[in-house]
Task: structure prediction
Amino acid sequence: MTETPYLLQPAILIFGISAILGFVTWLIRQEGKITQALERIAKLELAAEEIRHEIIDHKDRENLHFNERVARQVEEKNDARFGRLEADIKEIKQMVRDLTKR
Result:
């Protein structure tokens, strides 16, 4: 009986083949994980770009905040003015009533 070389023994061949198949399977799984990660990265980059555009648009409308603040101040001052005017009108009406009673 002739001896087979060490690498061609059935136990070594089975182990080597299973190791190679395991390695190929591991590579295929890694490729799938990388593909999923790249898809997630693309989605995140798209979302980040949308947020950047929203921030730029918001910066372009920064006068909006200023205008709202100015409008609120004007409204408060107008309320105070009209309140004084109404009080003055009431006083004038009362004076006219007092004068018409005499």
User: Anything to note?
Assistant: Helices lie at 10-60, 62-101. The CA atoms of residues 36 and 93 lie 80 Å apart. The chain is about 90% helix and 0% strand. The two ends are 148 Å apart (CA to CA).
